[in-house]
Amino acid sequence: MKIEEIFTFENLYKAYKDCRKSKQHKGEVIRFEVDLSRNISNLQKELLSKKYKLSKYKKFLIYEPKERVIEALPFKDRVVIKCFCEATLRDKIENKLIYDNAACRKNKGTDFAIKRLEKFLKYEFGIQKNNDFYFLKCDIRKYFQSINHEILLGLLKKINFSTDEMWLIEKLIKEQPNNAEIGLPLGNQSSQWFALFYLNEIDRLIKEKLRIKGYIRYMDDMILIHNDKKYLQKCLLEIRKACKEKLNLELNDKTQIGKVKNGIDFLGYRHILNSRGGIIRKLRVSSKQRMKKHLKIMKKLRIKNIIDDEYIYVRKNAFYNHLKNTSESYKLKKEVYPF
Questions:
Q1: Helix axes 149-156 and 189-198, enclosed angle (nearest 10)
Q2: Which value, to the nearest 10 degrees, does the dihedral of the CA atoms of residues 101, 102, 108, 113 take?
Q3: Helix pair 36-48, 27-34: axis angle to 10 deg
Q4: Residue 214's beta-bridge partner residues?
Q5: Where are any strands of DSSP class E within 88-151?
Q6: Are 180 and 187 in contact (CB under 8 A)?
């Protein structure tokens, strides 16, 4: 697409409306919409003339599910990225991804990934008539921070992006906080799509060369199901080699081969296939402890009137939705909730 087709006033306005959801009370959003038409028009002019530059990133820490550094752009830049992703980036990358690449995609996500994993477990159980088979779990060391810009751009150039589209893609990849030469900021929507695509060659290796039917990936968490431990060891060697030689990535210490009857840790749950072919899904101990701690902190903040009942209601419901997918949801709800 040409740049004038991507950044129409209508597309930018729609992106603004999407970006302001749940953030309409924030100062930067209010300031942007005080003179909304002019701000969108100015953004459009900068983009069409290719004088647009990314603003300075803001850094902050989050602690769910572990400590991470988030680097986020100001609101106006998030509008630009949202517009670009919706108009062209998402669809062109989406068309190149395998079905079982589950994160951040329409009609997919954590529930989809969990159901696919459990479908693969039950399918293999049906063939083997027991739960005495294996899984390989692969995880990338510091994935977002390790993505190589030149390799990523080389992969993206194989997709049919126009010259105008590549202009902004290069800007989003190369104009990083502290002028870093590798890594992508976690706070950008575009980074999510680039990260989904970066491991596509590994997906293709697993599905097309290694012929693993039971395979699911959620961002950089990969699970392979197979009845032959030696074959999974071979797969691990191939994956490790491809990650290093083609993508300049390393697998971390969480990478392991194990028996499915002992349980698979995936997306906050431990999935156990029993001897009758049923799935027992338990909340991981670390997830339970983290949830308890978070809720206790919310209780203290509510007493001090730092947060309100509406925020607590939203967060408690989010936790409950996570708990209800387990085999012990009622017990956990009583155990975890401090108020």
A1: 80
A2: 120
A3: 90
A4: 225
A5: 134-139
A6: no
Q: How far apart are the first and last CA of the chain?
A: 53
Residue 182 pairs with which residues in a beta bridge? 148
3-state secondary structure (DSSP) of residue 320: helix
3-state secondary structure of 59: strand
Cβ(43)–Cβ(52) below 8 Å: yes
How far is residue 181's CA from residue 276's CA, in Å, rounded to a whole number?
51
pLDDT for residue 294: 72
Instruction: Say which DSSP state 89 is in.
Output: I
**pLDDT score recorded for residue 296:** 76
- In the numeric block, the tokens 């002028």 are attached to 179
Instruction: Note the pLDDT tens digit of each residue in 112-168.
Output: 999 999 999 999 999 999 999 999 999 999 999 999 999 999 999 999 899 999 999
User: Sign of the CA dihedral 113, 151, 1, 6?
Assistant: positive
Q: Look up tokens 């409306």; give the residue.
A: 17
Question: Residue 244 corresponds to which amino acid?
Answer: K
Q: Which stretches of the chain drop beneath a pLDDT of 50?
A: 330
What is the strand order of the sheet 279-283 is part of? 264-266, 269-273, 279-283
pLDDT for 88-107, tens place per residue?
Answer: 999 999 999 999 999 999 99
Q: What is the pTM of this model?
A: 0.85
The amino acid occupying position 225 is: I
Name the CA radius of gyration of the chain, rounded: 22
What's at 294, amino acid-wise?
H
Specify burial of residue 331 (Cβ count, 10 A radius: 0-12, 13-18, 19+): exposed
Round to whole Å and give the CA distance between 190 and 172: 8
Place of tokens 């028009």: 41
Q: How far apart, in whole angstroms, are the C-alpha atoms of residue 131 and residue 322?
A: 26
pLDDT for position 70: 77
